[in-house]
Amino acid sequence: MTAVALRQLCRRYRETTAIDSLDLEVADKEFVVLLGPSGCGKTTTLNLIAGVDAPTSGQILFDGRAIEHVPPEKRNVAMVFQNIALYPYKTVYENIAFPLRMARVGRTEIDERVRAAAKLLRIGELLNRRPHELSGGQRQRVALGRAAVRDPLVFLFDEPLSALDAKLRGEMRVEIKKLHERLDSTFIYVTHDQVEALTLADRIAVMDGGKLRQYGTPDEVYQLPANTGVARFIGSPSMNLIAGRWVESAGSLAFQGSGITIPFEAGMSPAAQARPGMLTLGIRPEGLSIEPRGLPLHGMGRVYAVEPLGSDQFLHVTYGGESAELIKVRARPDTRFRVGDAISLNTSPADIYLFDSTGDRIFPNDLRW
Amino acid sequence: MVSRSLKSLAQSDSRFALRIVASLVLFNAVIFILPLIYAAWISFHDRDVILRTQEFIGFNHYRQILTSSEAIAAMLLSLKFTAVVACASLPLGLGIALVLNEDFPGRRFLRAAILLPWAISEVVTATAWIFINNPTFGALTGVMHSLGLVKANHAWVNETTALYWVAIAFVWHITPLGAFFFLAALQTVPDSLYQAARIDRASAFKRFIHVTLPHLRPTVTVVLVAVTVEAFRSFDLLFAMTRGGPGTASQTFPMLIFRYTFEFSRYGLAAAASYILVAVGMIITTLYFFALMRRQRLARIADAAAGEEARSRMPTPGEAMLS
Amino acid sequence: MRKTAGEYAVLWVSIALVIAWTFIPILALVWASLMPFNALVNGGLLQWPSGMGFANYEAIMGIATINDVFGGQPEAVASGFLNSAIVAIPVAVIGTAMAIIGGYGFGRYRFPFKNTLLFALLSVRLLPPIAVLIPYFVILSALHLVGTYLGLIVTYLTAVVPLLTWVLMGYFASLPIEIERAARIDGCGRLRALWHITIPMALPGIAAAFVIAFLTAWNELLFAVVLTGGTAKQTLSPALLAFSPTMPSGGANFGMTLFAAGSVLSTIPPLILALLVQRYITRLNVADPMTLEGN
To answer: Taking CB atoms and an 8 Å cutoff, what residues of chain A touch C114?
Structure first.
C-alpha cells in the first residue's frame, strides 16, 4: 500500500549500462507491468526496487521516502522470482512461513496466516510437501503464497509465469489478477510477454535498452505507440512498418514505399500530416483486409506464406522486388490462398500510423476507442 | 548525501565480503607466510648446531645448492617424477571416467569403489604396493616366479626402477580424483550431440574425437595441472615407499630437503633448498593461474558475444549479489 | 543406444581392467593382513596357508600379542588411532567452518583485491609443504608445540583451508542466487540468509569439504612425523610407518603382516566417510575454471 517512484535511476556495470536515467511513478495500489525484450533492464529495475542490487545513481522512493540505502530485508517488499526460488529443503508450509519467522511473528499467528494464504491460493493440501514434489503450477502458487502471507509495501514479480506452459500461464494470470484485487496492494510486474502485460496491467511501462520508451494504459500503448520500437513490440503479429515518403501526383498525395503506393484523398486525416522527407507508415495486421475499405495498397502483392490459426489466418505478402519487407495480414479463415497468388490489400485511414524519421509517432494523437 | 547513502549500500556488501575473506587470508598468511620469511632468514645464515652460532653468509647456501650435482640430480628426478605421473595419470583418469560413464550393471558401485585409492593414505598406498613388488613375498614375484620368468627374490625395486614404482603407486593414489573430474565433465555432454554424431554415422572413435574430447578440453587442463602440482609437492608416498633409495635412486628434491634437515641438521642449506623448490613451484603455480585466467577471459568473450541476455540469466556471482 | 557385440567386449574388458587396477593392491594388502607372518615370509603372498585369521588385527590393537614380531610398536598404532581422531576431527570441523566463510565470500561477492587475496590463499596450497617444514619446526619448537595436538591441528588447518575455500567457492557460486535474494527480501540479514538458506543448500558441498579435510589430516605423514613422531601424541601415519621395511626402525619383513593389518584398519574411517560423500564429490565445481569467475 505504497506509491513507488524512481527518479533518474541508473545502473551501470563495468562495460554496460543496464538502466539509464529511469523515471517512473507507480501509484498506490496500482498494477504496473514493466514490459520489454530480454536485456532491456526490466529485471534490473525490479532488483533495484527490491534492494538486492544497488543503483549507480538516482533515487527510489516509497511514499516519498528515499530507500535506496535500505538493505533488502528492511524494505518490506515481497518478490516472486522467475525460477520460483522456493527454499528447496523446506516444506511448503515452512516456505510460506519463512518471512513471518524472520519477522518474529508469534507461532499461532504464523499458523493462521500460512493457512489463510494457502487457502487463498488453493494449496492447503500441499503444505507438508517439499518443492521438488510439486508441479510447476503448484510451485508458482507456493511462491505467490510466500509473498501473499506478508503484508508488504510492494509486491514485485519477475517473470513469474515464464517457466510455465501456455495453459497454466493463462490460469495463473487470472490468479495473479485476483490476488491483486484481494490484496489491494501495489504490484510491479516484469514480463516480456505482451499478453500478460495487456491483460494484467493498470499501466504498462515499455522498456528497451535500459530506457523507458512509453508509460501508459494498455489501450494507450496498443493504440498510440510512442514510437516504432513500441509499435513493433506490442501486438501479435507485430505492426507492419513500411519506410517511404510522401509524393504528389495530379494534385493528390500518396505514400510511396518500396513496391507499395497508398493514394490518399484530400480529406483523409493522415494526409494532413504530410511533410517532405523519409517517414515510416504503420498498419497493424488486423487493419488490413482483402475487401475494399477505402484505402488500397497499390503494387504487386503476392502471397508469400499462409499461417492458418483456426479462427483466423495470417498471410505474409510480398510487395515488389527489392523490398524484402513482408506485409502481414489477418484474413478470415474461410478463404483459400495459395502461395504465389496475386493479392490486393486494403486498409482504412483509421488504421494508419505515421512515425517520423527518428521513429517517433506523429499520427494519430487520440485514442480511437 | 544521496550519493553517499547509495555508495554505502553497494559498498557494505563488498566490505562485508572483504572483511570475512581478509580475516581468513590473514590467518593463513600469518601461519604460512611468516614462516616463509623466517625460512629466508635461516637460509642466509650458517648455523652451527654444536657451537650454537649463527653467521650471516648471504647467498652462499643457494650457490652451494645450485652447484651441487646431488641437488641438481634431485631436482631433475623431481621433474621426471612429476612428468611421469602427469603423463600416466591423465589418460588413465580419462579412460576410467569413460568406462564409468558407460551404462552397465554395478556402475554405481564401481563409481563409489573407484575412489578407494584416493581415500587411502599415502603410507597405506606404499604398504599396498610393497605387497606387489616386494622381492620376497610380493605378488609380482609370486606370479612371475611360478611362470618361471624370474628367479625368486627378484629385486623389482632397483636403482633404475625405484622412481617408476613410486610413480605407479602415486598414479594409483591420485588418478581417482582426475577420473572424477572427467566423469563430472562427461556427464554434462549433451546426449543430443552423440545422437547427432550417430545419425551422421560417426564411429565410436570419431564420436570420441569430435564430440567428447573438445568438450573435455577445459577439464584436461585442470586435471593436468592439478596432478602436476600434487606430484611436484608430494613427499609422503616416496618417504613411505623408498625413502629416496636404493641409494639416492629415488631421492627427489623434497626428499633431499628432508635429509638436509633431519639427517645432516643443515637447516640453512635446507631452507635455501626449500626456496629453490618454492621458486620452481611458483613457476608451475603461475602457469596454472595464467592458464585458468586465459580460459576465464575466453569464456567472458564468449559470454559477451552471447549478448546481454546471457548476462541477465547468468550473472557473475559478484555482479549478482550487488557489486 | 544399443551396442554392438564388439563394443560390449571392449566395454567389459575395460571394466575388468579398471577393477583389477583399483583392487589388486587393496586385495594384496587385505590378504597379507590375514596371514601369519611366517607364512608370508616363507611362502609369499600367493598362497592360502593355514592359520588365516584376524590375529594380526588383534595384535595391532593390543588385544592379543604375537610372539616373534620385530620392529614397530603395536601399541603406538592403537594410540595412533586416538591421536589421529583428536587431530583430524577439529581440523575437519574448524577447517570446514573457515572454508564456508571464505568460500562464501569469494564465491558470492565482488570486492577490491579479490584476485590478489585468492591468489595469496591458493599459493599456500600449491606450494610444497616441505618448504615450510624447517621454520614450522623451529617456530613450533620455540612455542613448545612440537609433540602436541595443537601444533599439528594448526599446521593442518593452513593446508586444508585454502583447498576447501576453493572447493566451496565453486559450490556457492553454483547455487541459484535468487533463493538467497528471496531470503534477503523475506527479511534475513546477510548472515541469517547464509545460515538459514545458503548453508543448508550447500550441505552436499560442505559434507564433501569436511571429508576432504578429515582425510588430509588423518592421512598426512610429513608433519606428523616431524611434529609428533616418536612422542605420545604420534598419529597413525608415523605409527604405521614404523613397521615399514624401508624405515630404520622397521623390522625388515617381519612386521609386514602387522603393518598390513594396521594399514587396513587405518583406512576404515576415511573409507566410510569417502563412500558417504562419494556422490557429492562429482558435483563439486573444482574442475570448473569458471569458479574463478566473478572477480
So the answer is: none
